[in-house]
Design a protein that fits this description.
By secondary structure, the chain is an alpha+beta fold. The chain has four helices and four strands, in the order ααααββββ. The chain has a four-stranded antiparallel beta sheet. The longest helix has 50 residues.
Length: 148
């Protein structure tokens, strides 16, 4: 009798390992999605500052890496020169959001790169790229912003 049950036990153990591995993968995916949602909320909040022309405040909420690269005065002046001619933001659609650990010209770390298709009052087709990085204190802050 035990010879009959041995293959069945092996099969059941294999199924349990498969199910456990897939449940762990699903839980990891949920954790990644939850983490991404939290960072995307921070990105959205930061973009609202930019949309409302609160450029100094957007700099204040930036990462130390960002602040070391550009002064508050230069950021405010540059962003105003780029954004004001575009007019109000009429529509912004998330197209890509990806966690990365390496970016060209930046230190290794945890990043979320987000791309939006954006329609401005005076520019119908734009792509905004917002990069957030996780700092040593665990908080995610902007480390890059580009409009194409």
């Amino acid at each position: 009798m035990s010879a009959l049950f041995k293959p069945m036990r092996i099969f059941i153990v294999a199924v349990m390992i498969f199910v456990t591995a897939n449940v762990a993968k699903a839980e990891d995916a949920v954790q990644v999605d939850s983490a991404k949602d939290a960072v995307l909320q921070a990105v959205h909040t930061w973009l609202q500052l930019v949309d409302r022309e609160k450029y100094s405040e957007s700099w204040e909420g930036a990462s130390a890496y960002f602040k070391a690269a550009v002064t508050q005065e230069d950021w405010t002046h540059s962003l105003s020169a780029v954004r004001k001619p575009l007019g109000n933001t009429l529509m912004r659609k998330l197209t890509v959001s990806e966690f990365l650990t390496e970016l060209p010209g930046a230190p290794d770390g945890n990043y979320l790169v987000v791309l939006y298709e954006t329609v401005f009052q005076n520019k119908q087709h734009a792509v905004e790229t917002v990069t957030f990085m996780q700092e040593a204190d665990g908080h995610w802050r902007v480390s890059g912003y580009f409009i194409k």
